[in-house]
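@channel anyone free to eyeball this complex?
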Amino acid sequence: MLFNSFEFICIFFPLVTGLYFLLPHRWRWLLLLVASCWFYMTFVPVYILILAFTILVDYFAGIWIEQSEGRRRKLLLTASIFANVGVLAFFKYFNFLNESIAEVVRGLGFHYGVPDLGIILPIGLSFHTFQSLSYTIEVYRKHQAAERRVGIFALYVMFYPQLVAGPIERPGNLLNQINSTTPGTGMRAKFDYGRVVEGLRQMLWGFFKKVVIADRCAVVVDQVYGAPEHYGALSIALATYLFAVQIYCDFSGYTDIALGAARVMGFNLMVNFRTPYLSKNISEFWSRWHISLSSWFRDYLYIPLGGNRVVKWRWYYNLMIVFLVSGLWHGADWTYVIWGGLHGSYLILALVFAPLMLRFTKGIGLDRLPSLKKWLNIFITVQLVSFAWIFFRANSIHDAATLVHRLFNTPWALDDLRMLLADLPRSMLDFTVLLVIAFMAMDPLFDAWAKRDRPVPKGLVGATLYAAVLVGILLFGYFGSTSFIYFQF
Amino acid sequence: MGVRWGRVLLFASCVLGMYAFAMFGLSHAKLESRALIFRTGDYYNWPGGDSWTRFHEFDRAKRYDAIIIGSSHAYRGYDPEVFAAHGHQAYNLGSSAQSPLNTFHLIRNYVDSAHCPLLIFDVFEGTFQNTGLESCADLTQNITSGTAALGMAWDLRELRGLNMMALRWCTPGRRPYYESAYPVRNGFVAVPDSVDKPIKPLKNTKLDLLDRQKELFQACVKLCRERGIRLVVAQHQARQGTNRVRHEAFAAYIRSELAGTGIPFLDFAFAPGLNDLDHFADHNHLNAAGARIFTGQLVDSLEALGYMNQSR
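replying in thread with the prediction:
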């Protein structure tokens, strides 16, 4: 069931939320668990068994780890990690590895007989696997008590708003809210008009991002990325910038809907985006983009590898490893690995050349113009991130190479744009570009309101602003229940 | 509690007011002689063309011997002049991409047994494979019956239907933006062109008909029977390259739907008499010459089956 589907908006969400507030506190977990199972099973029902396996493994692992000490404790954690990563590896990476090995073996002139198993990736597998893993690791680190009730633990892994595309929660936040005994918090939340309105506003902004911006951008992006050899530099650059907007609106839109739906019921999920395209460097970008994943990698991979408290070459190595793994986490394809590698390289190069850049900016007097420096940095960061998106979005390595080649080797001609216009549905390009510009100007404001960084204007002004968002969805939404990009991860 | 309901009411009023204001403004403000609304989405249609003429020329008080309904196959393939040559009055209510969803509302609002004893419903696979959105976009702006427009927009079950109707309501005295490229005679559009190359057979043999369109097709049949309208389902000739397996599957489906109703399916898809190069305007529409031959064959069949009186 998609968040932008009729079934979710008109039936599932109102029904589950209504029942949630009608039921006594002690039964709410069961309602949410059943609803989450239903939500997940609307995709591929049988895949709930994989989820059940992960839940059971980590449930028992958590209890046994808590009861153990020394080597046995470590062994149990290792077993849990192996089980989780094993499931992920089989369903997500088997086909990829198999194809990659087959290509190499055939390239060497040998016969390769391992068949393609035609495995379909369970939706949101990478998200709930990481969420479940964070629980066992936190129990191992003695930061979290093991959960004794299997139903509650299952709800922690399966909580429907964030089940298929995050944010990847930590037990310290979500599990503790589910278990909260403080009246008015978590599962004990009462119907609070103000909070419900806040949640609905955040959901509304999420829907706007998805159906008005992301799905419109997708039409242009799909056209160019579907036939890269037909387009020149201008169309490719435009499509790439639009993809940067599309993926942000698609994913952060999903997150807003998830956070909003959870907030309506009294849960506070972790913030996943903080206007990432206003970052002044790549490091900052990763502290504002998909925060739940980047912090997961920081806590459970980067720091255990030694982080930055090692010799320089090892620090760079750690960074590169984290970003290559992050690339692979996103998808089983070499395009994602290159995307991750590019981000790792950006960071390493920034560190290597930092002293030189400092001298350079001082030398040209940019330090005396902090505002200009800030916007210049933002501009450069957007270019670097957008360039990397080419590899993320391209359908294959070959397509990515074609896109990059044509981006830098064809003239920036208006005729190219005219050809793109002729290939698109009527008026799709000009109006989409206008909407994107308007959205980029408004997003920081709505984002700050959603995160309570700023108060939402009261009375008629507030009502008018959010009414305009709803009217924008009604009038300019690109409908047809298109899926969210991050569901495939 | 009262304050909260007041806020909800204020918000709802803001939404309604802004929506009406925006829709009215976008449908009246023009850029390069085009209403701005047409720049905001690809599903808004300009009023005009053959659909406008067809529905504005249709006389609901007049008695016809037969009305033809269906997609572009209908309005480009069934020539009322051939009916007239056989002594029958016919009118063509076919329209672009018309699906059973749209046809149902047209029958309900334009066809009754007192003015039309026989309804010829053209079908082919494509009409059961689209949601009805394209036809809805065309008809909501072009037909004279607001009830039929509202019915099909509602049946789309999505927000685009609401927007199409809002556009219709916001432009009550609208004029056609453009003329049909070819003359429209009793709803029929005679396309003189012929194709110049043979069609490649489609490889895909899988037939995916939408359940919703199947439901609406059944509803059309039921409605005709309730109203005492004699219904004939028909399909005109297809080009030689057309996938036979796929067509047979579709024909079997139609026959199964009509089984026990006494309604015939006159399947001319592979009937002789037409050739690809002289009788088709494009990959699947008949041209004027093709329509003349096919309609003659159809009328002969209808007369032979007793659905129409023998030619005078």
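from a first look: The radius of gyration of chain A is 24 Å.
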